[in-house]
Specification:
The protein has 65 residues and is mainly alpha-helical. Helices cover 80% and strands 0% of the residues.
């Protein structure tokens, strides 16, 4: 009977640890989403600036039209 209780207690502790890890992963996912969103916004702003100035950033093909 003690072994069964010990196993149950271990499973409960593992469940709590998994819940904590899940919450942490969800928070990391939110932060990563915000980071990607910020990067996209910065790229869009940079593109708008370079378009306005008429310059081609390094690594981009020049418009031949």
């Amino acid at each position: 009977m003690q072994v069964i209780r010990a196993l149950r207690d271990t499973q409960l502790e593992h469940g709590k640890a998994l819940e904590a890890h899940t919450k942490t992963l969800q928070e990391h996912g939110k932060l990563l989403g915000a980071l990607v969103s910020g990067q996209v916004a910065m790229m869009e702003q940079l593109q708008a600036i370079t378009d306005h100035l008429g310059v081609t950033p390094p690594g981009q093909p020049r418009d031949q039209g």
